[in-house]
Design brief:
Elements: E1 5-10, H1 18-31, E2 35-39, H2 42-48, E3 51-53, H3 81-93, E4 98-103, H4 105-116, E5 121-125, H5 141-162, E6 165-170, H6 177-186, E7 190-192, H7 194-197, H8 202-218, E8 224-229, H9 235-245, E9 250-254, H10 266-284, E10 290-295, E11 298-303, H11 304-309, H12 316-327
Parallel strand pairs: 1-2, 1-4, 4-5, 5-10, 6-8, 6-9, 7-8
Antiparallel strand pairs: 2-3, 10-11
The protein binds 6-O-phosphono-beta-D-fructofuranose (F6P).
6-O-phosphono-beta-D-fructofuranose binds next to loops.
């Protein structure tokens, strides 16, 4: 594998720290004397040949910025055999010998297909959800947690003043990682995640929440904060049902895309820098079809096929700790 030119793209939902990763990939790639090319709008841009030359100056003033300067987009054509062939051809025609893909599981499946079709790829995990099984950490997670934590702290002020129950819905797609960590960090009374309650009926959920509210009232609690992962669904309806079944005013707040934006935290910037470097090192060593990961707290890497087959789950210990600490028993 004789690599002279490396492309880099961001794919899937943007995440704070993606820009720091782009900067690291480009600057470190340049020190290794690669020609560096940015691919705009993810795989959509790849198959349309939306390429820009990237020199050291092109990534100035980027490390602290949220979002992704390369932009991201969803492509219906890309995952098809024609789309993959078109993407590989567009890359090769422009002289791109290998590609670094910053994104989530779906993006890595695309990277795997590109590799199978002759374009070496390396994945860097970037998503606020932290739901990529092969890695302990994904770029953007810490920033999203901090954003959600600050929002919950604010909601708590008003919930306490009004002695209300507040249902606060956080992102995470089908996973509850954000919900559990935010619940622990904010001292929430309860956390509800899809891993436990995706199939629980609304009536059962409301019964459990109302029981918990009553237990809280007995020990003098002035609010009831429930962090609910979006994968459980319909927090507005749940809030209405809680009000109907209890004497407690209840409000639902969906934090939404605020969690995806903002300046990345130090953790996201540092991990992004390290992952970017490792991706370039892997290509320099002639390796491809790998994902850069965090394993036992250290930067590592794993074969994409193996990585995609792995499973991880929320920590049972942390999940139980939310309720235990809130009750003090
Ligand atoms: O994967 C990141 C994420 O923000 C999820 O938490 C959420 O389910 C999804 O993306 C939202 O996607 P979109 O921005 O396309 O609505």
């Amino acid at each position: 594998m004789d690599i002279k030119t490396i492309g880099v793209l961001t794919s899937g939902g943007d995440a704070p720290g993606m820009n720091a990763a782009i900067r690291a990939v480009v600057r470190y790639g340049l020190t290794k004397e690669f020609r560096m090319v940015g691919v705009e709008r993810g795989y959509h841009g790849l198959l349309r040949g939306e390429f820009i030359e990237m020199d050291a100056a092109s990534v100035c003033d980027l490390i602290q910025r949220g979002g992704t300067v390369l932009q991201t987009a969803r492509s219906k054509l890309f995952p098809t055999p024609e789309g993959i062939a078109q993407a590989v051809k567009a890359a090769k025609d422009y002289g791109i010998d290998a590609l670094i893909v910053i994104g989530g599981d779906g993006s890595f499946r695309g990277a795997q297909k590109l590799c199978e079709n002759g374009l070496p790829t390396i994945g860097i995990p970037g998503t606020i959800d932290n739901d990529i099984s092969c890695t302990e950490y994904t770029i953007g997670y810490d920033t999203a947690l901090n954003t959600a934590m600050e929002a919950v702290d604010k909601i708590r002020d008003t919930a306490t003043s009004h002695q209300r129950c507040s249902l606060i819905e956080v992102m995470g797609r089908n996973a509850g990682y954000i919900a559990v960590d935010v619940a622990l960090a904010t001292g929430a009374e309860m956390v509800i995640v899809p891993e436990k309650d995706k199939n629980t009926s609304k009536v059962d959920l409301v019964t459990r929440i109302v029981k918990d509210i009553e237990a809280g009232q007995k020990v003098g609690k002035k609010h009831h904060i429930v962090i609910i992962a979006e994968g459980v669904g319909d927090s507005q309806k749940l809030a209405e049902m809680i009000e109907e079944c209890s004497d407690v005013e209840t409000r639902a707040t969906v934090l939404g895309h605020i969690q995806r934006g903002g300046s990345p935290t130090i953790r996201d910037r540092v991990i992004a820098a390290q992952m970017g470097m490792r991706a370039i090192d892997l290509l320099t060593e002639g390796k491809s079809n790998r994902v850069v990961i965090v394993k036992n707290g250290m930067i590592d890497d794993v074969d994409i096929d193996e990585g995609l087959a792995m499973k991880k789950s929320i920590s049972e210990y942390k999940y139980c700790l939310v309720g235990n600490l809130s009750r003090g028993v």
